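batch job 7 of whatever, protein = TIGR01777 family protein
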Amino acid sequence: MRVVIAGSSGLIGTALVSHLREAGHDVLRLVRRPPAAPDERGWDPPAGRIDDGTFDGVDAVINLGGVGIADRPWTGARKQEVRDSRLVPTEVLAAAVAEHGVPAFLSGSATGFYGDTAGRAVDETAPHGAGFLAEVCAEWEAATAKAQEAGARVVLLRTGLVLSPAGGLLGLLRPLFKAFLGGRLGPGTQYMPWVSLDDEVGGIRFALETPSISGPVNLVGPTPVTNAELTKALAAAVGRPTSIPVPAFLIRTVGGSMGEEMLLYGQRVVPARLQAAGYQFRHQAIGEALSAAVGS
């Protein structure tokens, strides 16, 4: 397939470009600077501009953009930036998919869509929950409307917490555990929807290559774990003991609503659609996923 990817320089995008090319796909990368390589095409989402010819002969567009949600405090301005960085590019790409008749549009979203589900297991049929992240994800997915209305196969990639040696969740937690400061967060009973980077890009490729898949797809590992279970597994993977738990009140005091949603909300998300379609997970359990990431 000939595939256009937006957000190709991020953690997931970088790995996905390599993965798809190894599988024989022709990948073009959208960049917001002047193109400097044969596989690059320029675009300016706020201006609604994409280089002419970008979608000639293209079979699918994959949209992975968006600023980080945990690297800065959630001020009013930052919340707007989080929204705009997702909604504007998605709307521009959805319109382009519709205009040029691209058959498939795979667009980013996140398990934050479900809000706090506590211990209740949720699959792709569950409604969106409450909270800032749930609102953003619902708006993000709705921004694909023009592509859906044009008849494109639209896949909504609800990504969990990605485990990778190059960053993501481990980029935040690994240094703490190495310094003997890693402990469970709050009660530790809240579920954390993890996914290895291998299965993140593997799941995206599977959705790309499987015509029967459309709508929301949970990109999470097949075995849900609580924060306490993840903490224990990470401590074992890095060869460090767990430390004193971080109280929930301290997380709320220091992190505000961001700390509440990012660290204390529980999401027991299951990858029902991937499993029903026959996707074979490379990492079935949190321990093997963490060992692979930490050992990389």
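notes: The chain has one domain: 2-295.
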